Amino acid sequence: MEHSIDLSKYQIRTDLAIESIKDIKDISEEVVEDNIKVTKVLVDDKISKIINKKNGNYITIEFDDVTDITNYNKVKKVFIKELNNLLNKLKIAKKDSCLIIGLGNSKSTPDSLGPLTINNIIVTNHLFELDELSDKYRRVSVLVPGVMGQTGLETSDVISSIVNKFKPNFIIVIDALASQSIERVNKTIQITDTGIHPGSGIGNSRKEISYETLNIPCIAIGVPTVVDAITIVSDTINYMHKHYTYSKLNINNPSHKLMVTQPNYLKEKIELNKKDKETLLGIVGTLEENEIKQLLFEVLTPIGYNMMVTPKEVDFLIEKLSNLIGNGINETLHNI
Amino acid sequence: MEHSIDLSKYQIRTDLAIESIKDIKDISEEVVEDNIKVTKVLVDDKISKIINKKNGNYITIEFDDVTDITNYNKVKKVFIKELNNLLNKLKIAKKDSCLIIGLGNSKSTPDSLGPLTINNIIVTNHLFELDELSDKYRRVSVLVPGVMGQTGLETSDVISSIVNKFKPNFIIVIDALASQSIERVNKTIQITDTGIHPGSGIGNSRKEISYETLNIPCIAIGVPTVVDAITIVSDTINYMHKHYTYSKLNINNPSHKLMVTQPNYLKEKIELNKKDKETLLGIVGTLEENEIKQLLFEVLTPIGYNMMVTPKEVDFLIEKLSNLIGNGINETLHNI
Amino acid sequence: MEHSIDLSKYQIRTDLAIESIKDIKDISEEVVEDNIKVTKVLVDDKISKIINKKNGNYITIEFDDVTDITNYNKVKKVFIKELNNLLNKLKIAKKDSCLIIGLGNSKSTPDSLGPLTINNIIVTNHLFELDELSDKYRRVSVLVPGVMGQTGLETSDVISSIVNKFKPNFIIVIDALASQSIERVNKTIQITDTGIHPGSGIGNSRKEISYETLNIPCIAIGVPTVVDAITIVSDTINYMHKHYTYSKLNINNPSHKLMVTQPNYLKEKIELNKKDKETLLGIVGTLEENEIKQLLFEVLTPIGYNMMVTPKEVDFLIEKLSNLIGNGINETLHNI
Amino acid sequence: MEHSIDLSKYQIRTDLAIESIKDIKDISEEVVEDNIKVTKVLVDDKISKIINKKNGNYITIEFDDVTDITNYNKVKKVFIKELNNLLNKLKIAKKDSCLIIGLGNSKSTPDSLGPLTINNIIVTNHLFELDELSDKYRRVSVLVPGVMGQTGLETSDVISSIVNKFKPNFIIVIDALASQSIERVNKTIQITDTGIHPGSGIGNSRKEISYETLNIPCIAIGVPTVVDAITIVSDTINYMHKHYTYSKLNINNPSHKLMVTQPNYLKEKIELNKKDKETLLGIVGTLEENEIKQLLFEVLTPIGYNMMVTPKEVDFLIEKLSNLIGNGINETLHNI
After folding, report:
1. Is the confidence metric ipTM above 0.95 for this complex?
2. Is the pTM of this model over 0.90?
């Protein structure tokens, strides 16, 4: 039902698999190291039906902060390792040529991750004709197709015509994603071999950028940079519930009365119950998450609802992330 | 109480007077022409105490859309007329020199209104030494002081030192504002002769840019470009209330059952009652707006809450608005 | 011989026909109006052999200054008229769809004319699916293919694959040109129906963008934005000759002795003779222009010669010119 | 005499000391290491009179290429060492506060070195109030005053009013310079403790930014990013002379006849004689360098001469250089 919310309006074309699998147990493998969490899922036919995601590998890297140089380097190291693993799994050879595609709108900050990443890529394809390169490099070319609202051209058709003409051995697509949760914004990198599926879910293959449509491996790298305004309201309703229950439990806890800083309801496991939510939030408290989102969509549409929610320092964060991904790709594809 | 929410975190330093006076009757004069609404208030000692705003003139221009060229021109015309009126009221003479100051962070889109406007200003001050100008022009110079997070310098001190050195006859300050309502974002221009008061309300005169601190008229022009994430949640709770009441009233209305498009609860006057809100929203429904905002602030703080809400096309809108204000100022200050 | 100077090094791919025909009499039609000179040539088989330019129409608009708003509007009017004429001559119908291509490197100011012009184009192609447009508009889409040094992809192959996929009825290509004369830089617009011929002259059809390669009309619009450093030296040698002869002639002219400002050798017709040039410039004075350029190329190559000459205010001029061309194309293609 | 050529027209305010001292023996100390040449001069009263430069230390770092990462790091290391030496010589203490000023026009590529460098500076001054910093940092603030053509304000007055208000212990000024030689453009960094002297030479103290006017140490860091068009013509005339003499000497040298690549007249010591120059260049060959420049100025003025010469890849080079200088300053001023 949530898919009736048209996230594509602000040009964000894809989304985060980890959010679909969060409630399904035992299908993903998780490793945490140095505060960086890597979650890997192989979506097979069975899971695909449940979560409405395409079959394939999904690797999700979650981290805290890339503005700190130490943490930036740690995340980059993990990113390179995971991208390398995926290339090996896909049997991509050392000398296979790569076209890297930066999706999105360079003139809208949260959607500019793709084009900005391309600025950091070491491009070599044209130099091979000249024999000017040592064999540390492979053939790499890049494409920034723009968005249909600016070019008038269907982006997936631009990509397929370029791929058919230049015949790279594989492609990497970089894109900004929409998240269903404000906690993940600019703090997650998703790597997948399933390509890009504008709109949502599987089935709409017309505009798909994938192995099925292009006949070469299609790796997609995405970062959630924005949440829908509906998401922030819906998230907040959940937080209110947790906060309320937490406060009720601790209202007579003398240790809290002495606390200088606010107690943090997020840090503790709280048993939530439905009754509390109803008391706190009335009818709204009785609705399921999807029902709330549908309600919010109905409520906000008449006011010409067209808002997005981003971190205040989004310009700076997107710059850091595109730098990390660009340099990470360089170190993975070339022997430098 | 709402002022405990630190809007200054994202560098937006001021706010919209019209939001403080909306519940006070008979103090403002309103004219609507061509879908553009102009509201004027003269805040005197008495009103100042009630709304916690500085004494002075506040002119608010509200409009729908500046991306349409016809509407853009209409809004510009009204803006020029009102700015001219204020100059006359302040007895600013035809040849008085003006320093125009673009506040804000040129590297954060919603906060870049000031610096972008300055790009459109016709600067003449240095040409007067050369006698190169016809007498259609007055002396105009500009300053983009940056924000303290980037320069390390207190912005108001930068401004006062430049004013003291160059001694303009008056200044115009352009700044992005924070709004308490998503409906006003990028659809309102405020002109005032009270200057700029970082932080909020009156009383904190240390960083004030005003007649009182600089001894020359200080006109401030502002556009709300952003709302706090708390605002969108709080607004949505109100919309839910209206929507709920509206739906209840019309649930058996046969005409609605035949409607193809969604009925619009905003277009009709609805009598809201407290009981409905409580049924819909439980305890939350019993809270006053300020109490809800305080609750939201408490709820969101532990999750490292640092979000802002902007229209999806904010980059494009800020460009248009800075163009309108810049050219409007040019036509007002010079005889062109 | 001058073509051994590789202007393509700085990504400027084409050049100005008017410079090839300047010494051939009676082949062009010239009109001057309001200080704007329009020169039209139809290059046929015979002329093509002489000037090494492709058969077709070449329209050259020469003007003084586009930073002045009055002059800007005059030039735009002439540009629209001439572009319209050419569309009619090519029998392009009111509803024929157009792909507009901005060649060049958006990150090198003098080469950014193409990409910057695209920013000003009204794009409509994607809106036709939605029936959202009045019939004042035709289908327009845009492409910014980048330069091979940045993308790794041969630009003409990018263009041909997009044209083959989207099948526009005609294309317009915008590009920065190299000029052989500093007097023309940023003061000339060339419109032609011969397309783009990277490298130089005719014959190298591999990378050509033209009716012959794409099978649709290919209009090219170019502005010289740069001259090679060799050109400025060679031009200056000619100016020295004129200046010397002029000074010699006027050395005893009493009226000159009273002049406050410098006499202007350019404003008068002077009979130049070879002997003078030799006296002034020795062996160099005996060389033909092409021989001087060849000599300069030899002299400058060892010092890692890689210089270009631009007006000091090139950033500002390119912005104005791309705005003029973009808006001129909009008014020609759409009924607005 | 060359100073009648108004380089200040394109906003470049200062110039390179090394070009004035090149003909004076034994006053400078030169070290070459790793292809990086460092020249140090202490201009005292006597030398000052000869070269028309202000008394003080001038350190010039000459290098080949900063687009190569290895070389970039070498140059940065030398830059940090020399800047540190100068701070020590000026007895600037570990905790002394610094205001860093980026001169120039951010909208004209070759003049944007100052503003771009500021973007890379770690600013700390405002954080000291909050006790948020470890003692690895000193107080650093920044200022980008713009150019008078854009602000209408005399730049030196903007700087002095900010210095007087904020009272830093010393300032560092970064500026793009004009060079008299194309070989030095973007390949030289000059560090000096004499400040900035707009216009030229000493004596014009009105707009000076220096210890004498501000009473604190004023370090200036400059890179030549542009040469005047007159310079390139004049340089080329000299190169023609060398090339001619070299060719004459080697015309019958059989080894040259077998050479595939062009012989390089620059790599060998050639005895130049006046007679050759006259034969080659006639009257022009008899003129001194300053006389030639004066002649060129006269010749080019009537054609509305307003050209500059830059490397073709100037946008990219300025980005690298501002990055090097910004990070070099960070590592020198802070303990990071």
Report:
1. no
2. no
